[in-house]
Amino acid sequence: MHHKTSTRPILAALAGLALASSLAHATVTITGAGSATEVNSATQTAYSGDVSAADLLHGLTGANAVTSGWNGGAGSPAALNNGAHGGVTDTSASSIAWTTVGATAEYNLGTGVSGLGYDITSIQSIAAWNSAGFANQAWTVEVKPIGGSYSTLATVHYNPVAANGATKVTLTGLDPTGIEFIKFTADSVTGSTGNAFTFREIDVFGVESGPDETAPLVDTLSPTNGISSVLPGGDLVVTFDENIVVGTGNITIKNLDAPSQLTIPIGDTQVSVSDKVLTINPVADLASNTNYEILISGTAVDDTSGNSFAGIATGAWLFMTGAPDVTAPLVSSLSPADNLDDVPLASDLVVTFNEDIAISSGNIILKNLDTSAETTIPVGDAQISISGAVLTINPSSNLNPNTDYAVHIPNTAITDLSGNPFLGISGDTAWDFTTIDQPLRIMCLGDSITVGYTDNPGWTNHPFKFGYRSGLYTRLTNAGYNFQFVGGSTEPWTGISGDPTNGGTYTPALDLRDFGQDNHRGYGGAGIWGNVNGWIDADNPDIILLLIGINGMGGGSQTALTNLVSSIVTHAPDVHLIVAQITPYSSFNQTLYNYNIYVRDTLVPGHITVGNKVSTVDLYSFFLTDPSTYTTLPSTTGAVEPGVLSNNINHPDNPHYDLMAQEWYEGIQALDLGPDNFAAWIVDPVFGLAVADQDFDDDSDDDNLSNGLEAWFGTHPGEFNAGLANVTSVGNVTTFTHPQNPTVPDDLTGYYEWSPNLTDWYASGAGPGGGVTVTFSASIRGGTTTVTATVAGLAERIFLRAGVVRN
């Protein structure tokens, strides 16, 4: 009997998951008609022959060509539209325009001889700068018609060039008409120096607009011509290629089976027009199982320039209705799903049906199964909305944590569009679910470094990114924590002090305000003494991260800090308080050093001894030129590396804020309050895995054990492990062992399988029909699992494997 073990999980096969694919390097979006091509070359001067001296922008100067926010030679718009690509070493203002994010170039094309503006047909842009690596492109183009306002025509994100080279992006087949102004805005190019790129040229091509002499044409018909089984009660819809208005004439609905016809004047209330769409809603439903033809007279519809639609003549719009709809709408899906656990507290309750629906009458009941309390929501309330086949219930307040709920929908509440009533959802088990536990409430408490200030007048070197709070948010989220930052400080957005008042409106790429996670109790230099107990009462934290500098503690008074910590633990004894050994000044400060030693060696150990929930993190050492000097009095080696304090005094730069986030994260992890799942297990700092190596099926140590299996086994995912071992066969019984995690993450389920051929795999007690079966049993002792596989029937050989599923 031969045995082969496979220690690779088959999660993708079991769960139907798609594997990751590589990302495209180009993203071009055109809002109207058109298409795009992108090309790149390693040669700096590539595409120099493609520039144009005859495009619509060429020669525009002064008030007709206004640029702002550009570096280098961008003081002159000629850098973008002069028709000269530049030589191989040319970096002069006459040939390039070097962007910053948000830089704009706006051109007044004029109204033309006819006074009707210009029709834009194509745009091309060329980017490069010799030896600067600025060949990638990211920009938005907007157009403004005469008497109108700007609208986006296209966005371009094209990033194929890793080093030096040139790119050209061409937009063709565009459809804007009557354009007077065109504007380009630079966006960020990820990975480029300063997120910038360099335009060699922008060319805009088009012709003067003339009067509209083209009649509107049909884009789509609904129902489609020639279709059958059309619902008798549906609308008849014509979508045109341009905006339309009502003319004069009739719409005729012909019953081809009767035969008979209904004539509707175009101005009747049964006909409506919205932009490009003409809708016919007959006062009476069409007959079922009947052939129809729709006719529209040639004068009934005009475009906004008065050109008449040619009409719909005999044979152009035919269809057949089906049987009348007498079937009640059915539920296709529920969200949250029935019996689902860990439902977020802010979730909408969504029912998707198998057809479009309408509100009728009655009340929807949201029942708390733990208390039997019921929330009644009339179906006409603003908390209820319908879109097509989707019913959405958006409760006015969030659901309670860790609570069982049921949703009841009466049989009078919903109908389909033919008036057939939904049968409803009744009882406490048809649609019930359980909400997630109360989020872990984290108060970031302290001074300006808690806020995250960098105080950088130049803005670009150290922009405001929420300090350590941004990195801590990311780490907690990636680890699967259910948490909420709490606190009512409005800094920095009130403009009290710090970065957002130095440049105005900078918005970080990861904006904690977007996630409702910009809550904190950081104050720029303000004391917290008289307020902290009130803040604790208001915010109800589970964890407090206390980072308060010596300038906020009465000159670094250890007594002041002792009193503050004692006040917190007395007022809120159940709160976990993590006291930071604070970040340094730009040069060694004896008072600050003594303050940190006191926190580490005296204050925190004293509270631990008496059972208080107080711990510490070291936010000092990783700033030092020589961190090993922390345990002895540093002198000149206690200086901070040049440049890591953004204001050259005490506020960290963003990379060091991120190091602080890691220390805080490890301090929170040590409290053992987080989730017991794979996501939390794999980010354990002990493993030291890069983020790119933390996926469930990654195997960074090449031991043929995926991270998921390492979590089940309890082995180190970054170190080689044997996996299955001690394989022994006696007769029809085979045993083997593997390590066993005594605290398996609660979202993992291990399993054993067997195969006669390495193709067909079977679970315990199963096998091919009428043939061999293998039954597995397992026992755990001392961190090792012993698995026994017993074969029933005759088999030449079998293969055994262990796997794990992430639930």
Which stretches are poorly predicted, pLDDT < 50 over at least 5 residues? 1-25, 85-94
Total domain units: 5
CATH class of the largest domain: Alpha Beta
SS-based class:
mainly beta
Blueprint (SSEs and pairs):
Blueprint lengths: L10 H5 L10 E5 L4 E7 L23 E4 L9 H4 L15 E2 L5 E5 L9 E10 L9 E9 L5 E8 L7 E7 L6 E8 L11 E11 L9 E5 L4 E4 L5 E5 L3 E3 L3 E6 L4 E6 L5 E4 L2 E4 L10 E6 L4 E3 L14 E4 L9 E5 L13 E5 L3 E3 L3 E6 L5 E5 L5 E4 L2 E4 L10 E5 L5 E3 L15 E3 L5 E7 L1 H4 L16 H11 L4 E4 L34 E2 L9 H8 L3 E5 L10 H14 L4 E6 L8 H20 L4 E5 L35 H16 L8 H5 L24 H7 L11 E6 L2 E7 L8 E8 L17 E9 L2 E9 L6 E8 L1
Helix pairs in contact: 4-8
Quick summary:
With 807 residues, this protein is mostly beta strands.
Q: How would you describe the overall organization of this protein?
A:
It is built from ten helices and 44 strands. The chain is mostly beta strands and 807 residues long. The protein folds into five domains: 1-25 and 696-807, no CATH class; 31-208, Sandwich (Jelly Rolls), CATH 2.60.120; 218-321, Immunoglobulin-like (Sandwich); 331-434, Immunoglobulin-like, CATH 2.60.40.1220; 440-675, Rossmann fold (3-Layer(aba) Sandwich), CATH 3.40.50.1110. The strands form eleven sheets. Strands 1-8-7-10-5-3 form a six-stranded antiparallel β-sheet, with no helix packed on it. Strands 33, 34, 35, 36, 37 and 38 form a six-stranded parallel β-sheet that branches. The protein has a five-stranded antiparallel β-sheet with strand order 2-9-6-11-4. Helix 4 packs across helix 8 (654-669). The two termini are 34 Å apart.
